[in-house]
Amino acid sequence: MMNIVLATDFSMNSWDMIITSLKLYAGTKCRFYLFHCYEPELRNYVGSRSTARAGVIVGSLKEVAQARLKETLADIEKVHKNANHSFDILSRQGDIIEALEEIAVEKDIDLIAMGTKGATGAKNIFMGSTAVRILRKISKVPILAVPENTEFQSLKSVIFPTEYAHNYSENTLQPLKKLLSLWPAEILLFHVAQEFTLTEKQKMNRSALKQRLEKLDYGFFKVAVKSTVARAILKFAEEKEAQMITMVKHRHTLLESFIEEPVIKKVSLNTSIPILVLQGA
After folding, report:
1. pTM for the complete prediction?
2. Which of 124, 146, 168 finishes a domain?
């Protein structure tokens, strides 16, 4: 059984993320943890009376969070009937990174799913600050980041940008393989670069990747970076009509470039393709 966190802030983007996750993993047994994190601003509450008041505020926020989680679960149950799936609700006070890391250990989590934008996110930003922070800080659990307006129906092709800079382990690739055991999708591996001559190390990594994907349907492509890494990846995904992008998280590699580029933070990118982030060794 898979254990999956559905991290929600009750936005429409979060609802898109929930429905996409349920559809993606419809064919396997899952326990979904519908999760909300609240972080009250308590710096101004000092002294015995203020401390008591702060306690009331925190208690109230927890009650609201639990009530909204129950409402969301009721909404899910109205539209989603799947004997493979069961649900729990969780709310935590404090920093979302710390909360997710604790839950990942406590519940043996296999995947964290989230929206790319929060309830207050600006319309012209593809990925909000909380999503970027989670992608940066969470290092042991794969992450599914779902943009707003995603209308997932089926998984037919997954694009996998790489620089062949690392030898991806079997453990790193396992979440992708698990997903592809549920969907007969092809993997479109593509080298993102300005220059395509491979070093000996890159050749070895490419060969190892081929061996680890040998039982799957895959093909190799090359994509030149003409403006930014993000635009190159998203343009290729749209050209191939892919339903998912997957990237492996390592320091100083494509994912870091992808989320750090100004185009992600400031410029509108018209895409609704989910991104599966695998954790590098």
Report:
1. 0.89
2. 146
